[in-house]
Design a protein that fits this description.
The protein has 245 residues and is an alpha/beta fold. Helix content is 40%, strand content 22%. The longest helix is centred in the N-terminal third of the chain and has 32 residues.
Length: 245
């Protein structure tokens, strides 16, 4: 099986040889971050939101319950991208956006103009593993969707989540993950892994993110495995839920 995976990886790499060549020349990464990935993510956001609308509505339904003593809900979103989740946040919610890639301005501006029911506090250019610009215990909720697949360290990101949340605060997640062991879905994820990671800005297909969440010491963790109907892609398996600090 391993030889088959290596062979198919080589075949896929041959098909993507122009991108590998551009990467070798140092051209692909800046082009991907500035032009290709922001364009791709905005298109994916529309499709993914359509496929997960009911799940997201249910996921964020209890967000108002986590408002602070003042009645305001202070929310930090890690990996905001093009603002895929804005439409699901309650009116009056005060949102701080963060992303390691600052090149989503156009898509983000379009999403902000469509969702004026929430207040936008500021935008931070920051990795999920280093949110030092956000004080300890300063937010009521942290949201992270389709982001933990591409952070350098899931465990360090979750430690930062715990740090910035106030006691009793909540962390919401929706992430694509590794498929079931010995399944054909996992086989194709393993085949696509290197080329997918190169083309889609570091996205890792085979992370078992639920294990990191289970080890993150949330006082309460609600986690569900679901399948999102995204035909002809290796990112159908997802986890969805929330953890309380």
């Amino acid at each position: 099986m391993e030889l088959t995976i290596l062979f198919l990886r080589a075949c896929l790499a041959l098909l993507a040889m122009p991108i590998y060549l551009l990467s070798f020349l140092g051209i692909w990464e800046p082009f991907c971050k500035k032009i290709f990935f922001p364009f791709f993510l905005e298109k994916l956001t529309v499709i993914h939101n359509r496929k997960t609308k009911k799940q997201k509505q249910e996921l964020f339904r209890n967000l108002p319950d986590f408002a602070g003593p003042s009645g305001e809900l202070k929310l930090l979103e890690i990996g905001t991208g093009c603002g895929a989740n804005f439409q699901f946040y309650p009116p009056g919610c005060r949102v701080t956006c963060s992303d390691v890639n600052p090149n989503f301005q156009q898509g983000l501006s379009r999403s902000m103009s469509k969702n004026q029911h929430i207040h936008y506090e500021r935008f931070l250019t920051a990795a999920g593993e280093d949110l030092h610009q956000v004080p300890n215990g300063s937010v009521d909720a942290v949201v992270c969707t389709l982001v933990l697949c591409s952070v350098q360290s899931v465990s360090k990101t979750l430690k930062e989540v715990q740090r910035v949340l106030r006691p009793g605060g909540v962390f919401y997640f929706l992430e694509h993950v590794a498929a079931n062991p010995s399944s054909w879905k996992l086989f194709w994820q393993q085949v696509c892994y290197p080329t997918w990671k190169l083309v889609f800005d570091g996205c890792c297909l085979t992370r078992e993110i639920w294990k990191d969440l289970e080890e993150a010491n949330f006082s309460e963790l609600k986690l569900q495995h679901i399948s999102v109907p995204l035909p002809w892609t290796p990112i159908k398996p997802h986890i969805i839920g929330y953890g309380v600090k």
